[in-house]
């Protein structure tokens, strides 16, 4: 009778979902086992009612049905497969009439590298799980290679584990989250969830979620990433996020299976599988209480305007829509396109379409206390700027200005709710020249610099660079070219772009700052040119390029620096900063200390460069008010939090650079979940700083004790500003005439200290690119 019942049950499943009922509870596998992505195996193939195909590898059974599964998944009729962990939802009701939805994908191994049929997954004898495509090409691996591994296991909650003797976890999928978070999954602070491109395409999407101590922060992955929402809480009606040490654990409050998913459109939705295993939406943790869906960056596509969750193109309602058209007349949410695309070759034809009470998902001011016309003019002078966004409160003539370089969805804002008014001026191209030419500049003849700094004509520098023929790379706000003066002196010539925002301001700052100071560890300004819109800076030539090329090991064939050379560079940077902070007539804050702005001469002497963001302050002035500026990853927390800062923002940046020099790693690296500063926190608390010393050079390992002492100096430079040492103190510590103060509490070692803004701040510095004033090594 039991066998007859089994047959009846199987037949009832057949039309909507075929399951190999013999493969129910096989949650583990031993070493040296391999699986081929081929349906006709002893594990069979599961076909769900949406045509999802699953070839199971491991399954965790529950009441005679598989509950969780690890295996290959094919969506619909595509010929690509993903290696996934699934929550199975196929339990019928008591009358065997109603089947649940297709499985929920909890984790994806190879989202960006799907494989074809007959791909091979191998649990190797050395404890590594490796996925290769049918042609033998590498697709994914746990990268463990740990000889203590004895078992691959699918554990409760869908956690895939590599386990050693004694049930010790060597690797687990819970430590490498993708787009979902399940109850009892513990995530390290600063780890991320990343959205998929779509429900069927698991490649990396536009959005990511960062886990903080008391909140979740959601970003759209632009350059730099932009914050679009935050939870501002760790406790909700249906779940709690409980912090313990450096980890946050998701705890649900119900009897049904619940999970959190970062959707392809940026929503952070919580679902549950109820009695019938039907997927039920519970809440969007990021929902804006006023703007609802309109607050999401892509709700109406590029250039689309969201108002009461309805999408239109700019000017469509007012009848001036001839400048933008819908991408699809039947689907407004797909966004809009320019009728006549903008071009940097005809900037004099650029003008604006004005939209009142319209802004974007995250207004971030870059210019403060200016009028709307100045905001528009700043955008016209920058070809990369796509719109001038102006916001004011009581005084229509003065407000703040945002200059986005990429337009996502716009949204209608409410003056009654927030008591400010938004004006958005979208740049567009008109059909004829404007009557007044924009952007012409007079010769800047009032620049006061040292008599040792020569003023060149533009024709002089065209000849010196052979008409700007040999490019050395890009620096702040311009390109750098190889040059030779008439007397045979090699120089590097930086030419500022004529349409770069604040290019004139950056040019003046650099000429006035570096043209008036002289120190062995500052790059020397040979001369400058200022003729109408032509702005150029002439520097001494640095044959070994910028520091980042020597410490970040872009290729294994690249030689690395020994300890003595790194020490020399470190002390040189410190002495250069000490001179700027203490010994100049007007003390100088550099604001953009990073390896790309440290140049090396033929003897590997360090020279600080790129003074375009620098600010001169009176000797008796300890603090200065300024907008946030610099490069994310190197900016001191107080610079992001306030605008009232001191020279110690440079000390913080120096501390980050010091970590990078000794460790040979970038603080912010997309290939790592954690920032380097967070890894340093963990290692110093474990008294294992020596693990971080760059091992790409044997000489570094021979001087590991000195390297660790230097790491401790770097940590001292990263303390809160009121405990941070001066550069004079740092120089003495590095030279051995003073000891660094002992530190016992390392909680400050994080990129996101409590109370600091997490969102990447719009800054005046361009993206992190090499500021090269020399040719390749």
From TrEMBL:
Domain Protein kinase, chain residue ranges per copy: 466-722
UniProt EC number: 2.7.11.1
Compartments it resides in: Membrane
Signal sequence residues: 1-21
Top-level EC class: transferase
Entry membrane topology: Single-pass type I membrane protein
InterPro entries associated with the record: Bulb-type_lectin_dom (IPR001480), Bulb-type_lectin_dom_sf (IPR036426), G-type_lectin_kinases/EP1-like (IPR051343), Kinase-like_dom_sf (IPR011009), Pan_app (IPR003609), Prot_kinase_dom (IPR000719), Protein_kinase_ATP_BS (IPR017441), Ser/Thr_kinase_AS (IPR008271)
Keyword Nucleotide-binding set for record: yes
Catalytic reactions of this protein: L-threonyl-[protein] + ATP = O-phospho-L-threonyl-[protein] + ADP + H(+); L-seryl-[protein] + ATP = O-phospho-L-seryl-[protein] + ADP + H(+)
Bulb-type lectin domain residues: 48-175
Source organism, top-level taxon: Eukaryota
Family per similarity comment: Belongs to the protein kinase superfamily. Ser/Thr protein kinase family.
Protein name from the UniProt record: Receptor-like serine/threonine-protein kinase
Source species of the chain: Nyssa sinensis
């Amino acid at each position: 009778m039991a066998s007859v019942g089994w047959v009846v049950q199987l037949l009832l499943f057949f039309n909507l979902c075929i399951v190999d009922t013999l493969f129910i509870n096989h949650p583990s596998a031993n070493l040296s086992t391999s699986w081929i992505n081929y349906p006709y195996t002893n594990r069979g193939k599961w076909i769900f009612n949406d045509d999802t195909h699953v070839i199971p590898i491991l399954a965790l059974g529950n009441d005679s049905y598989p509950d969780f599964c690890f295996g290959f998944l094919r969506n619909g009729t595509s010929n690509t497969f993903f290696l996934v962990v699934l929550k199975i939802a196929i339990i019928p009701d008591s009358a065997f009439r109603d089947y649940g939805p297709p499985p929920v994908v909890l984790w994806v191994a190879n989202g960006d590298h799907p494989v074809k049929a007959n791909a091979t997954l191998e649990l190797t004898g050395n404890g590594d799980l490796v996925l290769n495509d049918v042609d033998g090409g590498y697709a994914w691996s746990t990268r463990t290679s740990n000889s203590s591994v004895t078992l691959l296991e699918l554990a409760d909650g869908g956690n895939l584990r590599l386990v050693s003797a004694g049930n010790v976890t060597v690797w687990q999928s819970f430590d490498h989250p993708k787009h979902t978070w399940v109850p009892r999954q513990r995530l390290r602070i600063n780890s991320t969830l990343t959205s998929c491109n779509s429900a069927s395409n698991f490649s990396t999407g536009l959005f990511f979620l960062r886990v903080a101590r008391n909140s979740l922060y959601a970003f759209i992955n632009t350059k730099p990433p932009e914050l679009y929402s935050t939870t501002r809480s760790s406790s909700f009606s249906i779940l709690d996020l409980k912090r313990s040490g450096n980890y946050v654990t998701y705890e649900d409050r119900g009897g049904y299976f619940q999970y959190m998913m970062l959707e392809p459109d940026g929503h952070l939705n919580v679902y549950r599988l109820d009695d019938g295993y039907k997927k039920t939406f519970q809440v969007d943790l990021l929902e804006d209480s006023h703007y609802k869906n309109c607050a999401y960056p892509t709700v109406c596509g590029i250039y689309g305007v969201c108002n009461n969750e309805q999408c239109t193109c700019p000017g469509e309602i007012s009848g001036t829509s001839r400048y933008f058209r819908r991408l699809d007349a039947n689907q407004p949410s797909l966004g809009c396109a320019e009728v006549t695309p903008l071009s940097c070759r005809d900037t004099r034809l650029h003008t604006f379409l004005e939209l009142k009470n319209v802004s974007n998902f995250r207004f971030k001011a870059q210019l403060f206390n200016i009028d709307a016309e100045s905001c528009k003019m700043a955008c016209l002078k920058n070809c990369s700027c796509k719109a001038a966004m102006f916001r004011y409160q009581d005084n229509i003539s003065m407000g703040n200005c945002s200059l986005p370089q990429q337009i996502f969805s716009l949204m209608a804002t409410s003056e009654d709710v927030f008591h400010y008014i938004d004006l958005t001026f979208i740049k567009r191209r008109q059909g004829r020249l404007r009557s007044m030419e924009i952007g012409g500049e007079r010769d800047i003849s009032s620049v006061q610099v040292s008599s040792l700094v020569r003023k060149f004509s533009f024709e002089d520098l065209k000849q010196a660079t052979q008409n700007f023929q040999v490019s050395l790379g890009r620096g702040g706000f311009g390109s750098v070219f190889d040059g030779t003066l008439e007397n045979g002196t090699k120089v590097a010539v930086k030419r500022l772009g004529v349409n770069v925002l604040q290019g004139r301001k950056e040019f003046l700052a650099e000429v006035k700052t570096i043209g008036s100071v002289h120190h062995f560890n500052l790059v020397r300004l040979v001369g400058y040119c200022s003729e109408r819109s032509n702005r150029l800076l002439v520097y001494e030539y640095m044959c070994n390029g910028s520091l980042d090329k020597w410490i970040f090991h872009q290729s294994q064939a690249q030689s690395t620096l020994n300890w003595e050379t790194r020490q020399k560079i470190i002390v040189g940077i410190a002495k250069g900063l000490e001179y700027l902070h203490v010994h100049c007539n007007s003390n100088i804050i550099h604001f953009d200390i990073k390896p790309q702005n440290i140049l090396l001469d033929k003897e590997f002497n360090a020279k600080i460069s790129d003074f375009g963001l620098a600010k001169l302050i009176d000797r008796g002035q300890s603090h200065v008010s300024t907008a946030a500026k610099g490069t994310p990853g190197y900016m001191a927390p107080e610079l992001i939090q306030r605008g009232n800062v001191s020279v110690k923002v440079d000390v913080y940046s120096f501390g980050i650079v010091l970590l990078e020099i000794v460790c040979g790693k970038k603080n912010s690296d997309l290939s790592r979940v954690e920032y380097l500063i967070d890894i340093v926190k963990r290692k110093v608390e474990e008294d294992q700083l020596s693990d971080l010393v760059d091992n790409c050079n044997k000489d570094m390992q021979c001087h590991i004790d000195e390297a660790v002492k230097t790491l401790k100096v770097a940590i001292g430079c990263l303390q809160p500003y009121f405990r941070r040492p001066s550069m004079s103190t740092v120089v003495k510590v590095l030279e051995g005439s003073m000891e660094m103060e002992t530190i016992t509490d390392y909680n400050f070692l994080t990129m996101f200290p409590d109370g600091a803004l997490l969102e990447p701040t719009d800054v005046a510095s361009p993206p992190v690119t090499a500021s090269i004033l020399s040719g390749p090594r």
